[in-house]
Amino acid sequence: MNALGTIDRPLTHDPLKQAPMTPSTTSEQPSGSAVTDFTTPGANISRQNRTREMQLIPEALARAHMHERMREVDAERQAMRLIAARRMQRRAERVSLRARRALAMAVMN
Length: 109
Known about the structure:
By secondary structure, the chain is an all-alpha fold.
């Protein structure tokens, strides 16, 4: 396998130095192989923006993940407060009922 620029092992990984993927009629050079003098106008700018965006993707993903975790924690905290409030309300109702019974027993005697 001495062919230059195969799909598995391209001659270069730089997209600026690669020719566009067009079907070729000659069999001496595979389509899409590297050509040294081929450059797309404006490719540097779009490639630079794409690289910058690609570098920011993990940061945005981490930010979204942390935001989701914060929402989950807040929801869990609110649920725990609600459970504690219901528990205290039941306890207060039992104490109130005991006080009423004690008052009724005191009045009856």
